[in-house]
Specification:
Elements: E1 2-7, H1 14-23, E2 28-31, H2 40-48, E3 53-56, E4 59-60, H3 66-79, E5 84-89, H4 93-99, H5 107-127, E6 133-134, E7 139-140, E8 159-163, H6 166-175, E9 178-181, H7 187-201, E10 213-218, E11 221-222, H8 226-244, H9 250-254, H10 261-270, H11 283-289, E12 292-293, H12 295-306, E13 312-315, H13 323-335
Parallel strand pairs: 1-2, 1-13, 2-3, 3-5, 4-5, 5-8, 8-9, 9-10, 10-13, 11-12
Antiparallel strand pairs: 6-7
């Protein structure tokens, strides 16, 4: 199991943070699309590192055209000497339509075509073939030489798709190099919903693709002191409440009999009562999503839960965490194996 971490530093500090992660033995560093562009920090990270893999976890596909994403991914693949992973996600309809003013329809079908469009563009650049992609959602048939960045020694980057529901999980199984599980995932949901959906999609998998990698950015509450644990619990509770308010994520709560929390949390978001959401997330719920304890104890529990189920485990607890704690946590995950 590969052990990764998240790149949460400010843009100016992204290179140093990635270099520290590489020195601490992490095998991958993921940049997020929250309050910044996910590609820019990875450019700094690429120049400051030499071995660690660099991925977007995630970049919003439907907020960008396939051509826009293709250029950003190609640049980072070239800059990192082949260490880039393009992680894509769909987001949800209100964000795509109201925050980005972009079209939304049939996300699984659109994502399948998006990946096909990306690969058609990259094949044009790498092999010199004519660009002639025509789909239901995207059309790309113009690539003058002046705008063609040309081939790169490593070839195109792998594409990972973020998935929670059955349809997107099957899509990932069919067309992606890897699946990025949502951190709003429990062992029960992974075992009873996600893995069966992946199996259902495997018969339709592109035969040219290698076996799919399963990557999980895991919740974890880690600390040596009561104060550190309390801060981690608060940050994790807040994150779980935020994700739990989304209707698309209710099936995860349903696996544990907590489904009725979702409309309650959603109503609080509509009333702009964000501060009151955390109180609905009990310690039992936090513990189901996140191992809690010292780096050594939490690392052992992470491996116990997910070894044999995922190929990549990303350690990125919500909120600021001492890098020394993260390094010990990663060592503990690896030491158990």
């Amino acid at each position: 199991m590969r052990v990764d971490t998240g790149l949460t530093a400010a843009l100016a500090d992204a290179g140093a943070a990635a270099a520290r992660a590489e020195a601490d033995g992490f095998e991958g560093v993921w940049g997020y699309e929250t309050n910044n562009d996910p590609f820019l920090p990875l450019a700094f990270a690429a120049q400051a590192t030499s071995t660690v893999e660099l991925g977007t976890g995630i970049a919003l596909a439907f907020a960008r055209s396939p051509m826009t994403t293709a250029y950003s991914a190609w640049d980072l693949q070239r800059l990192s000497n082949g260490r880039f992973i393009l992680g894509l996600g769909s987001q949800i309809k209100p964000h795509i339509e109201r925050r980005f003013s972009m079209p939304w329809s049939r996300p699984a079908a659109r994502m399948r075509e998006y990946v096909a469009a990306l690969r058609a563009i990259w094949t044009c650049w790498q092999d010199g073939t004519k660009l002639d992609f025509a789909g239901e959602f995207y059309t790309h048939n113009l690539m003058p030489p002046h705008f063609n960045p040309g081939p790169i020694p490593s070839g195109a980057p792998p594409v990972f798709l973020a998935a929670v529901g059955d349809a997107m999980t099957r899509t990932a199984a069919e067309v992606a190099d890897g699946i990025l599980l949502h951190r709003f995932t429990t062992v029960a949901y992974l075992a009873k919903v996600t893995l069966p959906a992946l199996e259902a999609g495997r018969p339709n998998r592109d035969p040219n693709l290698a076996p799919i990698q399963i990557a999980l950015p895991a919740f974890v509450v880690v600390g040596d002191t009561e104060e550190q644990i309390a801060a981690g619990m608060a940050a994790t509770r807040r994150q779980i409440a935020f994700y739990g308010s989304t209707p698309a994520y209710r099936p995860v709560l349903d696996q544990h009999g907590w489904g009725e929390l979702q409309p309650e949390l959603q109503q609080l978001t509509r009333e702009d009562r964000w501060a009151q959401m955390d109180a609905l997330i009990t310690d039992e719920i936090v513990a189901e999503f996140a191992p809690i304890g010292t780096p050594e104890d939490a690392g052992a529990e992470l491996r116990r839960r997910f070894a044999g189920m995922v190929e990549r485990l990303s350690l990125a607890p919500p909120g600021p965490v001492d890098p020394d704690l993260l390094a010990r946590l990663a060592a503990a995950v690896r030491r158990e194996g």
